[in-house]
Amino acid sequence: MPRRMSTRILLVVVLLAACDRSAEPEAAPATPPATSQLPVPEPTANKPPLAPAADMFTSADGLVAAPRPSGDGWECVEQTASEPGNEATLIKCRHTDSERFFFLMAKDYAVPADQVRSAEELAAHVFPTTYQKLFQSHEVRESKAVDHAGKPAYELRIEAVHASMGPIRKHERVITQGNHVFVLSAEGKPEVFDGEAAAIAAWFSGARFKNLP
Q1: Residue 136 DSSP SS3
Q2: Alpha carbon 30 to chain centroid distance?
Q3: What was the pLDDT predicted at 55?
Q4: Tally of CB atoms within 10 A around 142
Q5: Phi and psi (nearest 5°) for 132?
Q6: pLDDT less than 50: residues of the chain
Q7: Contact (Cβ atoms closer than 8 angstroms) between residue 173 and residue 181
Q8: Between the CA atoms of 91, 95, 98 and 103, what dihedral angle is there, to the nearest 10 degrees?
Q9: How many CB atoms lie within 10 A of CB 194?
Q10: Domains assigned to the chain
C-alpha cells in the first residue's frame, strides 16, 4: 500500500475514535476520595419505627379536636350549645369504669363582649367561683402563665374534695382570643390522675381549636 494511502487511513481511524466518546467509559479520578470522608448510611434495621399519627377525636362541627387516649376502657363524647353569643363546643374522653373516675376535656365557648376577660383573670378570679360550686373544698397548688401552641395561656393545678368522689386532682389551662375562651382540663381521683400522666401530656399538647389559629 502506498505510504500516502496508509497515512490517510490512519488519520481517519484516529478521527473516528475521537468522535465516538459515548462508547468509552469515563475516566476514573486521579485521586479517589478517602472512604473515611464519605457518609456511611445507617442500616435501615437499626432505625426506630416512625411513631403512628395521633388518633384525633374531633367534634362534629370541627371546632375542637384532641388526641384520643390509647387503650381500652375509654368513652369520648361531645356537647354543643348554639345560643347566639354563648355558643359552645365541648369534647370529653373519660374512663368507662366509674371506680376509676377520670376525664380529659377540651372546650371552646363564646362570651358576650362585656364579659371578655384575659386568661389570667378567668383562671384567678372567675373559675374559682365554679370550683366552689363543684367541690366541698379546693386549694390552688400552682398557677402560672404558660404557652399553648404559640399562644399565651394560663393554667392551674388544684387539689379538691368532692362530696361523693372524695379527693380530686385537677389540671386546667385557659386561653382566650377575641370573645372566645378555650379550656383544657384533666380531672380525677389522685391515684388515677397520676397514672394517666402520658394521656394528660398528649391531650394538653395535642389539642387544637379551629377558632384559635
Answers
A1: coil
A2: 52
A3: 93
A4: 9
A5: -65, -30
A6: 1-36, 38-41, 43-45, 47-52
A7: no
A8: -50
A9: 11
A10: 56-199 (3.40.1000)
